[in-house]
Design brief:
Elements lengths: L1 E4 L6 E4 L6 H15 L5 E4 L6 E3 L6 E2 L1 H10 L2 E4 L9 H14 L7 H16 L11 H8 L20 E2 L5 E2 L2
Parallel strand pairs: 3-6
Antiparallel strand pairs: 1-2, 4-5, 7-8
Length: 175
């Protein structure tokens, strides 16, 4: 379960995924930006290896593909401090809510499960009065949405990166 929560409005995007890689992690962020209709200026990251290679607060080492996706959208990454759970609490509760909502349910396909989660997000999560802000999430998102960065015309063009072996005859080993 991938959960992305905006800091001000607490608007969340929850996406189901069965695999994890740097490309999938990047694609989930890109899909989130499309669903929100824009990109935030800063993303506070959990230190998952798909996004963060070195979780340093001042000089974070980001996964190259993920770093380039964020740059394409004009987003700056800020990894969480290691072993400091208070820095990412806005996302953690969103994960627990979705897990409780999906627990015990059966779906014929991943698409059906995602559709159910999207309906739940629209009909319940966005209409609730948030406990901290004491305001409706949807109302606050409407105020926050104009401050999101506009999406680029072209989506990000994905590439594969990695160490390659170049043999003496000039052949490059890829896979």
């Amino acid at each position: 379960l991938f959960v992305f929560t905006l800091g001000c409005s607490r608007k969340s995007v929850r996406l189901l995924t069965w695999k994890s890689s740097s490309q999938i992690w990047s694609e989930l962020h890109e899909e989130t930006f499309r669903r929100l209709g824009g990109a935030p200026r800063i993303v506070v990251l959990d230190n998952l290896k798909e996004g963060v290679l070195n979780p340093d607060v001042y000089e974070p080492g980001l996964n190259p593909l993920y770093r380039d996706v964020l740059a394409h959208y004009g987003v700056t990454a800020m990894p969480c401090r290691v072993r400091d759970p208070n820095r990412k609490g806005k996302v953690e509760s969103g994960v627990h809510h979705a897990q409780r909502k999906l627990k015990g349910l059966r779906f014929e396909s991943a698409e059906e499960a995602q559709a159910y989660l999207d309906r739940w997000e629209t009909n319940w999560a966005d209409t609730r009065i948030h406990g901290t802000t004491k305001r409706q999430v949807r109302e606050m998102f409407e105020e926050e949405k104009p401050h999101l960065l506009p999406l680029p015309v072209e989506p990000f063009r994905y590439y594969r990166f990695g160490d390659r072996t170049v043999h003496l005859d000039g052949a490059v080993e890829v896979d």
